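User: Sequence in, structure out. Go.
Assistant: Echoing your sequence, followed by the structure tokens.
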Amino acid sequence: MRYLTALLFIMATLAASAAEQLSLRQAAETVSAHNHTIKAAEEQVVTAQRNRQAARGLYMPKISTTAAWVTLQKDLAIDINPLKPLLGNLDIAPLLGLDWSYTLQRRNLGFIEAEITIPLFMGGKIIAANRAAEAEYSAATAESKACNLAIFTTLVERYFGVVLAHNTVEVRQLAVTAIERHKADIVALIDNGMATNTALLQVEYALIKSQQELRSAQSLLSTAHRALQTTIGSSGTVQPTTSIFICNAIENLSSFLEQAEQGSAQLEIIDAKSRLARENIAIHRASFFPEFVAMAGGGFGHNITNILPRWAVGVGMRFTLFDGLNREYSYAAAKSTAKRVEELKLAANQDIKLLVESLYNKSIDHLNKSLALGAAIDAARSYLDSIREAFRQGMATSTEVIDATLTLAATQIEQLEAAYNFDISLAKLLESCGQSDRFFDYIDSINSTKIEYENH
């Protein structure tokens, strides 16, 4: 079993050396360029931009053209020749000899016409539609921002999840190695008649338990790697090069609350939807006013009668007198929707403040815990060294050595987990403030401390 564990560790080490090494910044750039969810959000922004451009077109004149070639059943004509006998007593013989028929429109004809319509007054509908399109674009932009922020937080969680799992494997491996050395010492003492088999059984039990914990840690590392591959979109193994860290110089709570008020993507989304709801009221209110347009049209034709005019200009008005109270109820519904969104906006402001405060307190708690555990690790390491020396001198038991070894490993892992939780809480805190890009500032800060396993 000992050789199998060592072989698995060597294979994991070789796989890690062959993996693609990426810093957190490089991983973030890769995700931004290839993540499908981010691309979908960007396309939503493009769609909103096109809708905004379409709304601007409502201010412009509308020009349309129509062309046709038509064959009628027969020519359109007026024939009053049958009335000639009634006029026979009149002295108009020369006129009676003429053909009293006239073709108004020949059977075959073709025409092409153009018409221009210019909106003069639409009750404010066009202005409201443009403002609504602007609000829609703002909402799409804010949703794209929120998507990027959320995916970056997920990346931090999974990236450092691999780092945590890797360090945990190393700590567990050290514990196994330390217990194996202690077992060898016990065997030597038994051979010299200075220890009993009971001590050996205790060591073997502790070794089996530590080896099981090592295998569990290796399994978690494999799962963490797959999760990171999914987020980055990589088909191969990714080996992180950025260490878990803590930073004991983060801003105070009031600073984060101010940042959230100004940059929260969720607040930007709800604000844009609030503006959209208000413009929807204006659009429905416009239906209570008449609409005025200027019109002009003209065209050319083949075999078209000269009786018809070739062009026309005018002003038109349209107003709905009654539509079954549809516009009244629609207007009332729009106002109700706007009130609902305003209430949601007030609730969102309170929720964001509460979220920021909660994440800030969690970050501070994890930071303080990691700092405290750092001192505990130094004490646990010193205690282990003293217990080992006392054991060699016959002043300590094998159980005490095992307990001290496992305590050191557990404290190291606990500190890694506290630092990992600090990083995740900090990433979520910055996400809620719309400031995820500042995460790298904390990594590069002179007050930042790497928390990683070191083989002593």
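User: And one key feature?
Assistant: Strands lie at 20-22, 62-71, 76-79, 101-105, 108-121, 238-240, 245-247, 291-302, 311-318, 448-450.
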